[in-house]
UniProtKB/TrEMBL annotation:
Pfam families in UniProt: LigA
Residue span, Extradiol ring-cleavage dioxygenase LigAB LigA subunit domain: 28-114
InterPro entries, alphabetized: Gallate_dioxygenase_C, LigA_sf, Xdiol_dOase_LigA
Species annotation: Klebsiella pneumoniae
Protein name: Protocatechuate 3,4-dioxygenase
């Protein structure tokens, strides 16, 4: 695996989900995975701080979640697929998340695409 990842850090915007990153994000990913539970989603929307404390999230993890720092969450070790779940819960489209991960607005991001789409599983809030 090391040979396959050699030099990847030189590619801008590339954050491989390595074993180390996976272990770092384990608690956060367990928290995000629970967003599949309706009661957990509701509590997340109503009182995130108490839920963070219950889940034992670190101050850094809480700050990343509160700021909706999508790129920071990926760099920390959050699973991309779980961030899509969170986006759906908070009403942020996948495309907005992708754009934020590139440090762009949605409009600037869409200019890099062949098609101008606005699909999402996120509901309107």
């Amino acid at each position: 695996m090391a040979q396959q990842l050699a030099g990847v850090e030189k590619l801008p915007g590339t954050y491989p989900f390595t074993h180390e990153r996976s272990l770092n994000g384990l608690r956060l990913n367990r928290f995000l995975h629970r967003l599949i539970e309706p009661a957990w989603r509701e509590r997340f929307l109503q009182s995130p701080q108490s839920l963070y404390a219950e889940a034992g999230l670190s101050e850094e993890e809480q700050q990343l979640l509160n700021a909706r720092d999508w790129r920071g969450l990926i760099q920390y070790g959050a699973s991309f697929f779980l961030l899509e779940k969170m986006g759906a819960v908070v009403g942020v489209s996948n495309l907005h998340i992708y754009a934020a991960m590139r440090g762009q607005t949605l409009e600037a991001f869409q200019q890099t695409r062949n098609q101008q789409v606005t699909y999402s599983v996120a509901g309107k809030r």
